[in-house]
């Protein structure tokens, strides 16, 4: 890599980890473009990227459903499963990518030298505009309020991110998703989100102008 080893990668160092997953639903191609943009930025020479590398460890699984992508499926895997409903008890033979990622996350969670700060699962939305997030609801009001800070910061710094479309829920139908399962597993210092980006376009703030998304625009998101 074109940069020196960060202090948080040295033996014995306490690691703060950001875990990112994408493309659990094969047809949601914008999620791959967004994930590609994140990777490109993190390994770049940008000064902010260097600060991030110096303070955080990023672990990225860019395609959780490679067989579904290969087959051209919209939502399911080769075995016909919607993988984003099986986080609670993934099978090593029916949901191998999910099983492997979950095992890795649990190993990190049980390691006192690792603090899993963020989990972000990237998706694409077929009907809504802009980028937005789904977050979890907690009984602890202070934890819930802290969780709202990150989407607010995104809204302030990205013209295509919509905080008004961001929502927090605990719908029973979403219980098997990565965001819901890990939000219930990890401790209150961790933040778990689903990041959605529109298939189509975003609306510029204060206008009615729709700006179409392109592959490049998603990568630069």
TrEMBL record:
Keywords: Carboxypeptidase, Hydrolase, Protease. GO terms for biological process: proteolysis. Its cofactor is Zn(2+). The keyword Hydrolase applies. The keyword Calcium does not apply. InterPro entries: Cytosolic_carboxypeptidase, Peptidase_M14. It holds the Pfam family Peptidase_M14. The active site is at 196 (proton donor/acceptor). One of its GO terms (molecular function) is zinc ion binding. Gene3D superfamilies: Zn peptidases. Residues 1-221 form the Peptidase M14 domain. Belongs to the peptidase M14 family. This is CBPC6 carboxypeptidase. The lineage of its organism: Eukaryota, Metazoa, Chordata, Craniata, Vertebrata. The gene is Agbl4_1.
């Amino acid at each position: 890599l074109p940069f020196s080893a960060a202090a948080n990668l040295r033996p014995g160092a306490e690691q703060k980890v950001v875990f990112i997953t994408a493309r659990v639903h094969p047809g949601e191609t914008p999620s791959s473009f967004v994930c590609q943009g994140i990777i490109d930025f993190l390994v770049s020479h940008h000064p902010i990227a260097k600060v991030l590398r110096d303070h955080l460890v990023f672990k990225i699984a860019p395609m959780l459903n490679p067989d579904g992508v290969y087959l051209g499926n919209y939502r399911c895997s080769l075995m016909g499963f919607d993988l984003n409903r099986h986080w609670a008890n993934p099978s090593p033979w029916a949901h191998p990518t999910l099983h492997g990622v979950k095992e890795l996350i649990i190993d990190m969670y049980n390691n006192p030298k690792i603090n899993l700060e963020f989990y972000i699962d990237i998706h694409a939305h077929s009907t809504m505009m802009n980028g937005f997030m789904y977050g979890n609801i907690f009984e602890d009001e202070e934890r819930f309020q802290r969780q709202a800070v990150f989407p607010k910061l995104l809204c302030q710094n990205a013209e295509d991110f919509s905080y008004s479309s961001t929502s927090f829920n605990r719908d029973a139908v979403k219980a098997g998703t990565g965001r819901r399962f890990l939000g219930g597993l990890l401790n209150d210092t961790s933040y778990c989100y689903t990041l959605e980006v529109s298939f189509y376009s975003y609306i510029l703030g204060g206008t009615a102008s729709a700006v179409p998304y392109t592959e490049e625009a998603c990568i630069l998101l």
